[in-house]
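re the bet — no i am not wrong, look at it urself. input seq straight from the record:
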Amino acid sequence: MKIENPFIITGYRSENEFCNRREETAKLTSAVNNGRNVTLYSLRRMGKTGLIFHLFRMLEDSKKSTAIYCDIYQTQSLNDFVKVFSNAVLRKLETKPEKFFKQTLEIFKNIRPRVSADKYTGEPLLEFAVERSESLLPSLKEIFAYLRVKSKKGRIVIAIDEFQQITEYPEGNIEAILRSEIQSMQNVSFIYSGSKKHMMHSMFTSSSRPFYQSTEMLFLNNIKETEYASFIESKFKDNNTKINDAAIQSILEFTSCYTYYVQYFCNKLYSGYRSVITERSVWETANEILNENEGIYNEYKNLMPLLQWNLLKAIAKERGIKSVTSMSFIKKYGLTAPSSINNSIKSLLDKELIYFENGKYYVYDLFFSRWLERLP
């Protein structure tokens, strides 16, 4: 009988389907068990959220801490943050509906709980409804006061994902407000996770920012090839599927050992082949993935000036370029003057179509980059 696909693309299932990250897990565990806050940051889709869920499973299994996860990516203001953060905290700490309602009514003056149905499962969900449009800053202070009371009964670990989002709020002092509340917390550890590396780094290492030197910094990098190779081989072996070393190496070369892309690629391979996987299987799957997304990739061309498109394509073909204004690079790809290239680079960075890492520019979406490489 075919077992469930072990290459998880989103979320977390079990330790058995989680590749490596032993050193990072150990650092996070040590920090939260000893009351230290952590800033966890990396490029998007490197596996930060999976690592957090992996840590939380371990903490919950040990029954030493209560773990709370809060994703604020969709929030646009302080009021949004208060609703999302409060919801995450109360759902975890008040699991019985009657206590949830009672605690909400006691703490919040202009928020009321309401019941809705999950659009996918139909199961009831507890949510917050804001009755007035005024600032929810008092409610934020109340939820932190509530956490101080609850933490006296046991350690609490809170992960706030996409934490850099608070810098986008129209209210200009959110960092200072949160820092003021958090620094007085006892028996509560925070993990601030973010995917905009330079923004996260600035928030916690700049002496002019409220969170300056308030956390340990943990950068999540690519998993080592040897570790991923062993993981891939073992998962296919568990399903009685043979995969040779050359095929594994081709997977890791195509995906640059980038967590999401490795997982997605292997997920497709796992679902498409039964007994033997060869290099041919790998390249067939690569073509399938790129062809499936071709319509989306072609649309990008219609959304940007020709110079930006040609520059994007050139960066992809180079698989990373240090100097985009060098004459050799400009001549090789028939680009225009350095001043125009600099403007295009800024625009591509702002659109998050490229990123700058270790002295080089790269196309952010790896599969898109591989598709661009094939263009004339």
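see?? The mean pLDDT is 91. told u. also Residues 78-93 form the longest helix (16 residues). so pay up
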